[in-house]
Amino acid sequence: MTTPIKAVRRMPLWAKVLSAVVLVFALLLAGLRLAVLPGLGDIFGEETKDRSGPALLESIQDMSRYEAASGNFQIVVDLEKDTKYLPDAIKGTRVLYVGAGTVDAYVDLGKIAKNDVTVNKERTSATLRLPHAALGKPALDPERSYAVSKQRGLFDRITDLFSDNPNDEQAVQKLAARHIGDAAKESELTARAEQNTTSMLKGLLGSLGFTDVKVTYGI
Prior knowledge:
This protein has helices at residues 13-35, 154-161, 170-186, 189-207, and strands at 65-82, 92-108, 117-119, 125-130, 134-135, 139-140, 146-152, 212-217. The chain is α+β, with helices and mostly antiparallel strands. This is Secreted protein.
């Protein structure tokens, strides 16, 4: 007499996904609890190894810019992303980020042509016409830039667990750099750069015997 074979019920796909998520959270919670116990902190300790290869020189460019001034800026970025028809607790992010960086102002001396420089026969008087000062690209300082707070919805937190870079701050860093660049344009950084360039040229030519040096801008 044969024994009837009982039908095996397969677990639905949504149940498998839910079980996997619960298991991941349970492992993370267990790891945090064990890490705080005396003598067990080394089990989950992290070790950083730098396996980077040597830096390769790709190109060399001759610089004709005179870096005449540099401005330090700081901006507090409040970036929020919402999803329609879903509360922030489910789907949405908000990052409060302090961005600190510098913007350099320079005068491109490479644009000076022969007719932009006039010298008298006695070589005691010189007139120079230079291009107006320009601003370089904003450079964020990683030592002084940091995230104050990060708020993420439940769905975003679960997604971050399977993301290659859950702490990606590229968007907020670009926004901070853009605000710093805008602030530099509204500042007197280029005017200061032209003043410093004029002082530098007058001092340099004065040491060469020129007693009358005039510097104008507007090539």
